[in-house]
Write a structure and sequence with these properties.
alpha/beta; 9-stranded mixed beta sheet; 5-stranded parallel beta sheet; 6 helices; 18 strands; elongated
């Protein structure tokens, strides 16, 4: 395991302690579970060097060529030196065919002040990113996509300004949340959907500015704390044994 991946593993375990009160296993053991919300990463090979090149869009032509972003200079130089015959540019069809044969997609788009980014694409000013795409100003991210200014986010898609989040979709400004869907400016939520400005909610839906809910029932603080501890312990036990939890989307659908 690489040093950056070791760091991410430690952050994963720390996030589990924050959310679940205990560690449930190593990060790589949960790849299948964590990847189910995120947009997939595809591994291609650079036609220049043969090195792995990671891209995050699936709709490429079957015969497409790929380069790594750090090979762009070399690629541009080689293309600029190419000479074409009159037959290559005699009509539109000839021109399209000629240039199509020289075009290449660039993967490994890691730009700005980014570092320790592995098997990822389209990351800007981000650090310690693994199997993720389209992140800006983020750190400690794995198996996720489409986020800005996040920290310690695992298995998520479409997040922003969030911290200590696991397996959530279409969220913003969350802290300490797991399996949330369209939940915004909230904290300490587990299995919630369509919440805004809420805190301390488990299995709650369609709520605004609420606290200490189990289902949609508000409980006294002590009673809520006791039930929360029990439910979260059951989640942790399931994760340890099965390396996965039912998703919030499955729960709503069923």
């Amino acid at each position: 395991m690489s040093e950056p991946l070791q760091t991410l593993d430690r952050k994963w375990k720390a996030t589990c302690r924050v959310l679940l009160g205990q560690e449930v296993g190593a990060l790589l053991e949960f790849e299948k579970y964590l990847a189910h919300y995120a947009e997939p990463i595809f591994e291609k090979r650079s036609f220049i060097s043969g090195k792995p090149t990671y891209v995050s869009l699936p709709n490429f032509h079957k015969g497409a060529k790929f380069i790594s972003n750090d090979e762009a200079g070399e690629y541009c130089k080689s293309v600029s030196k190419m000479k074409f015959s009159p037959n290559d540019i005699k009509d539109i069809d000839s021109i399209l065919q000629t240039f199509a044969g020289q075009a290449a997609y660039s993967g490994n788009l890691i730009t700005g002040n980014s570092q320790f980014v592995e098997q990822s694409n389209s990351c800007v000013d981000s650090a310690f990113i693994f199997r993720s795409s389209d992140y800006y100003g983020a750190s400690y991210i794995a198996y996720s996509s489409n986020g800005r200014f996040d920290e310690c986010v695992f298995g998520c898609n479409y997040t922003g300004e969030s911290k200590f989040i696991i397996t959530s979709y279409d969220t913003y400004k969350l802290t300490r949340c797991l399996e949330t869907l369209r939940t915004f400016t909230s904290s300490d939520c587990y299995y919630t959907a369509n919440l805004e400005d809420c805190s301390g909610c488990l299995f709650s839906f369609n709520q605004r500015s609420k606290r200490n809910l189990i289902g949609n029932l508000a409980l006294p603080k002590d009673e809520y704390a006791g039930l929360k501890t029990k439910l979260i312990a059951e989640m942790a036990e399931t994760l340890q044994k099965k390396k996965a939890l039912p998703s919030i989307i499955e729960l709503i659908r069923d």
